[in-house]
Design brief:
Blueprint: H1 9-29, H2 31-37, E1 45-51, E2 65-70, E3 73-77, H3 85-92, E4 102-104, H4 110-113, H5 116-122, E5 129-133, E6 141-142, E7 145-146, H6 149-152, H7 154-159, E8 163-167, E9 171-174, E10 177-179, E11 197-199, E12 205-207, E13 216-220, E14 223-228, H8 235-245, E15 251-257, H9 265-278, E16 282-286, H10 291-301, E17 308-310, E18 316-318, E19 321-323
Parallel strand pairs: 3-4, 4-5, 5-8, 14-15, 15-16, 16-17
Antiparallel strand pairs: 1-2, 1-18, 2-3, 6-7, 9-10, 10-13, 11-12, 13-14, 18-19
Helix pairs in contact: 8-9, 9-10
């Protein structure tokens, strides 16, 4: 006997609508991953470090910035620490910052955002969009007031013509280039100060875990290329998350700051193990990675000096390899 004959029509209709809504919600949750799978792989790219501590004839500082050139698009990753560092280094490296629509800010710290105002004033036709992770505008109270530099300059930046675009999930910024958005903390890496406080979205004073920390990535024929500012979310967490967004793909080149300095040998070895699992074959440790930590990771992974090195101002990373310049 057909049980639907005795099932109330209204209840049946509601049941169908509920199932349809459930499937729609599930589809929307996985939309970023579906969309990514339909994208073509990046063939050519060029990443040039514009701010980090190690340098020769350029300006070195405790900060990070890099120009990312992919498929005719350009994105400035972070803005360095001092007001003029990125502007000056870009000029000396003959990198044109005119008409660069997008700037990517990995997190709120001043060593990644300090050059933002100068960059916009120097290049008024550039940096229309500043891509940030959700949580970057949370207040960071301290004895001197508020420690969130981006929050303190937000009105100035917006009045100069920069639009902040906040990301909660993996999002495509330009064709083939994605932000992770805030990264889930699967592993307890605790890659932050441990003492700073913030006011969260509910108004509670809590530990500042730098929830907005985000990284940028794109896929190539050889695997994923990942750029990080400080990896406050934890390098292992970032690698794990990126491979969930693009299943079955190795993360073969990673560039940027990874906050591995002063880690114990055991923790460095554990991190190297997670890098090996992810398929890392090229490693450029700049900014807060640490000199000795970079060399330790190189040894744990069994990589050559051509594939794992300390990044300096002017270091260039392409599909063909790493070109460190004088600071080889």
């Amino acid at each position: 006997m057909n049980s639907l004959r005795y099932y109330p029509k209204k209840r049946l209709t509601n049941c169908i609508k509920f199932k349809q809504m459930k499937y729609l919600i599930i589809a929307l949750l996985f939309l970023p991953m579906i969309s990514f799978g339909q994208n073509p792989k990046i063939k050519d790219f060029k990443i040039t470090i514009l701010s980090t501590m190690l340098s020769d004839s350029y300006i070195g500082e405790w900060g990070f910035s890099a120009m990312i050139e992919v498929g005719g698009e350009r994105i400035l990753f972070d803005a360095g620490s001092r007001e003029n560092t990125v502007v000056q280094n870009a000029k000396e490296l003959n990198i044109n910052l005119d008409n660069v629509d997008n700037i990517f800010l990995s997190h709120n710290h001043k060593d990644h955002t300090g050059g933002l105002i100068t960059l916009k004033k120097e290049y008024p036709n550039s940096f229309k969009n500043a891509h940030v992770g959700e949580g970057i505008f949370y207040s960071r109270p301290n004895p001197d007031g508020d420690g969130n530099y981006v929050l303190s300059i937000r009105n100035t930046i917006e009045n100069l013509g920069i639009k902040f675009i906040s990301h909660k999930n993996p999002t495509q910024l330009v064709p083939g280039v994605w932000t992770t958005g805030p990264v889930p903390r699967k592993y307890d890496e605790k890659n932050w100060s441990g003492v700073s406080k913030m006011i969260d979205s509910k108004g509670n004073l809590v530990e500042d875990v730098i929830p907005e920390d985000q990284s940028l990535f794109f896929d190539t024929e050889n695997g994923i290329v990942l750029i990080s500012g400080c990896s406050h979310a934890g390098l292992a967490n970032i690698l794990d998350y990126v491979q969930k967004i693009i299943p079955g793909r190795p993360v073969y080149k990673i560039i940027g700051g990874f906050h591995l300095l002063k880690l114990s040998n055991d923790k460095l070895e554990w991190t190297a193990g997670k890098m090996r699992e992810a398929g890392v074959n090229y490693f450029v440790g700049a900014h807060c990675t640490g000199l000795n930590s970079t060399y330790s990771i190189r040894n744990f992974l069994g990589l050559t000096s051509e594939r794992a090195l300390v990044g300096s101002v002017g270091t260039v990373i392409t599909a063909k390899g790493i070109f460190p310049g004088y600071m080889e």
